[in-house]
Amino acid sequence: MPEAKTVNLDVHAVATLRYIRASMDAAGNVAVPGSAGIAMGIIGTAATVLCLVPHLRPHWLVIWLATGPIAAVTGGLLLARSGSVAYFIAAGTPGRKLAVALLPTLFAGAVLTAVLWRADLTDVIPGTWLLMYGCALISASVSTTSIVTWMGASFAGFGLLALVMPAPLQIPLLGIGFGGLHVLFGILIARGARGRES
User: Fold this and answer.
1) What is the tens place of the pLDDT at every residue in 160-179?
2) Is residue 39 included in any domain, yes or no?
3) Does residue 198 lie in a domain region?
4) Domain with 157 in it
5) Which pLDDT value is given to residue 5?
6) Three-state SS for 115?
7) Residues 31, 67 contacting (CB under 8 angstroms)
8) What's the rounded Cα separation, in Å, for the pair 123 and 166?
9) What is the Cα–Cα distance from 110 to 122, expressed in whole angstroms?
10) Pairwise CA distance, residues 111 & 106, whole Å
């Protein structure tokens, strides 16, 4: 029986294959526009200001429950305007990865909100929201950019902090998270995108 011959791949060919694979992975990522984060941050900041008005403070949960969908729709519309969405919609893969990463954790956060509200534990809802949203962003960073990982970790950190802080600090921490962190990382993402274009 003839002896099997081993074939050595050329180093250049291996490097080329790695480049092709990295290009295909990058093409499957969703480019999240910085404007989406900035807009959602402005909406979050507005909600915080409303909640800090003394006669509106008892209604903070209703205000934030109304704010969440508004911010999500605004962010989604700005994502839909970004250049990567043509591929995002046509191929479906990046959109599916993003949805699979985000939606389960956000659904779990919604369920926990209902459970905590029924148990009259509304003081821990802000920390739960920040923590769950942070975890959702960390999962979503698989199909976006690495800066989203840092954004998610920051949200999760604020969530853990909120869970141990006294009740009067919950609304300001929500504002720092959903307002300040969204704006900060939106600016960083926008700057990064401009840097890649130049």
Assistant:
1) 999 999 988 988 999 999 99
2) yes
3) no
4) 32-188
5) 53
6) helix
7) no
8) 8
9) 13
10) 9
